[in-house]
Amino acid sequence: EVCKKLLGKYPGVDARLFIGGKKVGINPKINNLMPGYEGAKYGLVWICDSGIRVKPDTLTDLTNQMTEKVGLVHGLPYVADRQGFAATLEQVYFGTSHPRSYISANVTGIKCVTGMSCLMRKDVLDQAGGLVAFAQYIAEDYFMAKAIADRGWRFSMATQVAMQNSGSYSIAQFQSRMIRWTKLRINMLPGTVLEPVSECFLASLIIGWAAHYVDMMVFFMCHCLAWFISDYIQLTGVQGGAPSFSKLDFAVAWFIRESMAVQIFLSALWDPTISWRTGRYRLRCGGRPEALDLGKAEL
């Protein structure tokens, strides 16, 4: 209904509504995208998840970053203001830990992209085999970005965030999502096994141990406090101002998220299977999944 209203609001825009998908591989998102991709007439394609809240000028912002040498423009994932502690926990993660690594990677030239909202050059994707070539992966966004980078194109970040606005959320869903992402990173990037060292509490323990000849606990607490303050400053930057929740809520959510980090990592190592969308998969080396139990619907 939303799409039909938009089509009616802008009758002069060359647009079509595609319903349903086309099975071309194991990835249900790619299967859903195929009819629209095959019907695309222009040089740029925008892949945007249904749970992303956009503004009237979001696409304009993306295209403004698509300069001559850029092949992909992506948005920093963040979360819209919602009710409940689970929403606060998600917002704290996507405003602190996630952008810290995401922005740092992109600033230093490491290709780090999530497919929540991406504008790409269609001809470059076609050179890589089109969307069909990525239907064999679960982490299609990583491999699409890699294919574009391998052809010499640069990446750029939009000035607007990719604002996640899912109507269904809980602490258990957040934890399951983080475990799934960690499994994918471990499988595709073996260096991820060192990831826990980048988390606050473990890094602070290492710092404290290194300075044990002074006072291990003092160094640990000071390091955690500095990290905590830096994270709050970063959150306000991503949010564009003070968050909708209190500083006490932030402190509780931050502590719980940091405490969950190692447990999430160990859970990802313990069970290599992934439950995602309509089925269960076992990851093979290189990111290719093997279907274990497909659901009733594959699209």
From TrEMBL:
Q: Which EC number(s) does the record attach to this protein?
A: 2.4.1.80
This one is known as ceramide glucosyltransferase
Give the family from UniProt.
Answer: Belongs to the glycosyltransferase 2 family.
- The organism's place on the tree of life at top rank: Eukaryota
- What membrane topology does the UniProt entry give? Multi-pass membrane protein
Compartments it resides in: Golgi apparatus membrane
Q: Which species expresses this protein natively? A: Neogobius melanostomus
Q: Which InterPro entries match?
A: Ceramide_glucosylTrfase, Nucleotide-diphossugar_trans
Top enzyme category: transferase
* UniProt GO BP: glucosylceramide biosynthetic process
Q: Does the keyword Glycoprotein apply?
A: no
Q: Name one GO cellular component term.
A: Golgi membrane
